[in-house]
Amino acid sequence: MPASPIAPDWLSFPKDVNTLNPALWASTVSRAGRGVLTVDGVSVTELAEQFGTPLYVVSENDFRERARTFRNAFDDAFRDLCGGVDIYYAGKSFLCSEVAHWVSEEGLRLDTSSGGELAVAQRAGLKGRQLALHGNNKSDAEINRALDLEVGRIVVDSLDELNRVGALAQARGTTANVMLRLTPGVHAHTHEFIATAHEDQKFGLSLAPASSGERSPAAEAVAVALDHPCIRLLGVHCHIGSQIFEPAGFELAARRLLEFLAGVRDRHGVELAELDLGGGYGIAYTEADTPRAAADIAKAMADVVRSACAEHGLRVPRISIEPGRAIVGPTTFTLYTAGTTKTVQVDADGASHPRRYVSVDGGMSDNARPVLYDADYSAALASRTSAEEPVLSRVVGKHCESGDIVVRSVYLPADTAGGDLLAVPGTGAYCWSLSSNYNYLTRPPVVAVKDGTARVIVRGETEEDLLSRDVPRQETDDRATLEAGA
Ligand code: LLP
């Protein structure tokens, strides 16, 4: 059976459609007796029975393992340069209080980007140096919350914000620990919406002056911060984008920031102590993706830091990074139940070719990434294996949009049918966190599996949850009456 002519070039025709590609799945996922997918000893049929579908299933051991892998890889690469690396897990990728506990238990810190994320961190008991606060438009309330928690660093995004942080700290008689987010002008090769360090976008302070002879916004901010009595300027930060495979962009950004730090030293006589190189490490969503191992990237970055510091005669600053996706992405799969299926004929090369549509009980409300970023995913028949031939398939959701696609192209067994469980790997990052109630669907629960036991770490929404914010007619009438009488 040849590959379908309407399949993308990168998708190979499977030798065995039941085989799981280990690059896409948590290390704890395998097929057990009769081919049922299991995660750390718990079968998906049990999970579906107990918790329903759709369901996000995260392998706790796999999460902890990936967190450790990052920590060890970067510590090993940088140990002789700056004693090691501080790893801030990027909470925006996926956060709940249980995950915040895993992060701190594995010796990582937590990068938050809103008051809400800080609230989750607070619930898990994180505070002080364990926390960083990001955001390009932080409110005073968010900054005050960070000051209440004595966060280790507020990553300041603009001159305006720097002044506000300074004023808020001054008003409380404290000092704010600040990193400055700089845009080193590196255009990461990733989707436009997730590339963040080129000039023409909203984040950070530019290294480039607005006109020749002027100070760059970055240099201006350093001068203001060093001068401010209530700001402790720790260092500088950049984040060039997300889902990046090649170290070249990270290396260039590091080089530019170190050059900038040398300029700060020359102008102000101060060697700033810290350099954060952000997150963005890519993962495999399909067989087409070939991310580098953390150890390779860490080594490439350490080489650049070593040589740039030597070139500028700089003491090596303490390095930190902020991976999100690369830690949590592969730890999770989304479990769906298949519903209706149909086959359409698509014309290509002067002939007509079948494409199978398999509808599942979720969709763009639990995974917005295909719609937002044209992201590709993979899928596997999870409740059983099949001896039927592989058929080019498209896994689609149940929302009222034709763009509601979960997996654009995947070979699934020809007998995949309503009632089967399907699992989509690599959904740990930016799926739950970008989820919505579109079409009044309830957000699915998140279940963590570890050593043969599954437990809910984020409760699924119920219809009551959905209706709880809707104001029923009776109450609006009462309010109208009250207002009229007032
Ligand atoms: N640090 C900063 C300042 C960030 O803005 C981000 C991600 C990270 C770290 C973590 O990046 P990661 O290692 O997870 O790639 N929703 C998009 C991704 C948006 C990334 C936002 N910032 C997606 O689903 O692809």
Summary?
With 486 residues, the chain is α/β, with parallel strands linked by helices. It folds into two domains: 176 residues, Beta Barrel (Lyase, Ornithine Decarboxylase, Chain A, domain 1); 240 residues, Alanine racemase (TIM Barrel, Alpha-Beta Barrel). The protein is 31% helix and 24% strand.
List the helices and strands and how they pair.
Layout: E1 29-31, E2 37-39, E3 42-43, H1 44-51, E4 55-59, H2 60-82, E5 85-90, H3 97-105, E6 109-112, H4 115-123, E7 131-133, H5 140-148, E8 153-156, H6 159-172, E9 176-183, E10 205-206, H7 217-227, E11 231-237, H8 248-268, E12 274-276, H9 294-312, E13 318-321, H10 325-328, E14 332-348, E15 351-360, H11 369-373, E16 380-381, E17 390-396, E18 405-413, E19 421-425, E20 446-450, E21 453-458, H12 463-468, H13 473-485
Parallel strand pairs: 4-20, 5-6, 5-13, 6-7, 7-8, 8-9, 9-10, 9-11, 11-12, 12-13, 15-17
Antiparallel strand pairs: 1-2, 2-3, 4-14, 14-15, 14-19, 16-19, 17-18, 20-21
Helix pairs in contact: 2-9, 5-6, 6-7, 8-9
The chain binds ligand LLP.
